[in-house]
Automatic annotation (TrEMBL):
This is Glutaredoxin domain-containing protein. Coiled coil: none annotated. The keyword Transmembrane applies. Residues 1-19 form the signal peptide. It holds the Pfam family Glutaredoxin. Residues 126-145 are annotated as: Disordered. Gene3D superfamilies: Glutaredoxin (3.40.30.10). It comes from the Bacteria.
Amino acid sequence: MMRAWTVPILLMLCGSALAAGLVSSGTAGTAAAVLLLFVLLAGVNSPLIFPKSVGASEARRLSEIDGRPVVFWRPGCQYCIRLRIRLGRGARQLYWVNIWRDPDGAAEVRTANDGNETVPTVVVAGRPHTNPDPAWVREQLSPSA
């Protein structure tokens, strides 16, 4: 779990140090802007922007029932963040599996990607798709929406 928060914590620490240096040199406005930027970057790279994760077995079971896609992701992955942001509110319709918290999910991703933990890996109707276009994923939501 700590691994998921390493990048956001480092961003917050760097932003705080930089802002403190700017405040001490008398540029409080710039310091506030820099700190805000680093807080936003930390938020985007944290697990907080993703819908609640479920385990791989639970996601598979639920997907078989209602046909919704399963997304395997990990915090800090720029492609996962891109997918999440481009899906907008539709992201809540998918089942999200954090591979850093679920060893079964990580194993499933490795099986689908020749031993690599390449994310996002989206499973639709039992078929894995590695780093698919967000527009395509949105189209897969239409039948179940």
